[in-house]
Design a protein that fits this description.
globular, 2 domains, alpha/beta, Rossmann fold, four-stranded parallel beta sheet, 9 strands, binds phosphoric acid mono(formamide)ester
Length: about 300
């Protein structure tokens, strides 16, 4: 297919063909990552700005590594040491950065819709690296890619996502990526954190962790996002961990070859036991590894590497 998309703002409007094209491009990027010299000149002369208004370890670092592997000039912006601290708005910040002629802005922001908003006012491409509780499209793609690598398929797999569904931008992207590929999706958590309307996506909703994990092929655990919770959604973390934390006894209900995923950061002992996080079933670090290839693919496609190569 011919890549026509200028921005990656969410997976809601991605076609199945586009998702497959990104995955195929990521596969070819993996080849670069296995070489002794992990660098190709595809994006030489292009500049990518990481515009992060929220904390990040995996997304920000992997975008930086991805860009460097492609020879792009990478610029890291952190709101904490910028003129945002002096009251500059998101729009003014973005317009000023756009004036310096980057090819791509990668933005993470606590407000849902921030990436869409920005894309209307800048001339460069925009990649959403997580906006509030809305979407985290690159995570949705890397999660899909990780399952494909672990299981060779997604169609028909029981994929269960457990935790703070209400505040999770990861879920909102993963429902699209896994859903497009025909997964049997399940969402689980306390009723206060699993909105009924999420069932409209085709996912099965349950408040019973045993039902959610039984015969699952993939169990993805989510962190409780206390930073986005204005009121109490459950009595205490201790009680939450007791009812919705994944431990070996609960996980034994899943298929024998089931894998455990987590977008990170993990709150060990709350949503996931130490034992499982570090077990042979865990593909959590594989997800991080997949993130570099997926982000290389997206930078390459958006910055025109694809057109230059053909
Ligand atoms: N998965 C994820 O978005 O992790 P970071 O917040 O560390 O980027």
């Amino acid at each position: 297919m011919e890549w026509r998309r200028k921005h990656v703002l969410g997976l809601a409007d991605f076609s199945t063909e586009e998702i497959e094209f990104v995955i195929d491009t990521a596969r070819s990027m993996e080849d670069v990552l296995t070489r002794d010299i992990k660098k190709v000149p595809a994006l030489r002369g292009k500049t990518v700005v990481n515009l992060f208004f929220e904390a990040s370890t995996r997304t920000r670092t992997s975008f930086e590594i991805a860009g460097k592997r492609l020879s792009a000039d990478m610029v890291n912006f952190s709101s904490a040491v910028s003129s945002v601290e002096k009251g500059e708005t998101l729009l003014d910040t973005a317009r000023n950065i756009d004036s310096m002629k980057p090819s791509i802005i990668v933005i993470r922001h606590p407000a849902s819709g921030a990436a869409h908003f920005l894309s209307r006012y800048v001339s460069c491409s925009v990649i959403n690296a997580g906006d509030g509780s809305n979407e985290h499209p690159t995570q949705g793609l890397l999660d899909l890619y990780s399952v494909l690598k672990a299981k060779d398929k997604v169609k028909g797999l029981k994929i269960t996502i457990i935790g703070d569904i209400l505040h999770s931008r990861v879920v909102r992207s993963s429902l699209h990526s896994f859903g497009r590929m025909g997964a049997d999706l399940w969402l689980c958590g306390p009723a206060s954190l699993v909105p009924r309307e999420m069932g409209r996506s085709g996912a099965t909703i349950t408040y019973d962790i045993r039902e959610a994990v039984r015969d699952a092929d993939v169990v993805m655990m989510l962190r409780i996002q206390l930073e986005r919770q204005k009121t109490a959604f459950f009595p205490s973390l201790r009680e939450y961990a007791r009812k919705y934390g994944l431990n070996s006894e609960i996980f034994s209900l899943a298929k024998k070859d089931a894998v455990i995923m987590h977008p990170g950061p993990i709150n060990r002992g709350v949503e996931l036991s130490d034992e499982l996080a570090d077990s042979a079933h865990s593909i959590i670090l594989n997800q991080v590894e997949s993130g570099v290839a997926i982000r290389m693919a997206l930078l390459y496609l958006l910055a025109g590497g694809h057109n230059a190569a053909h």
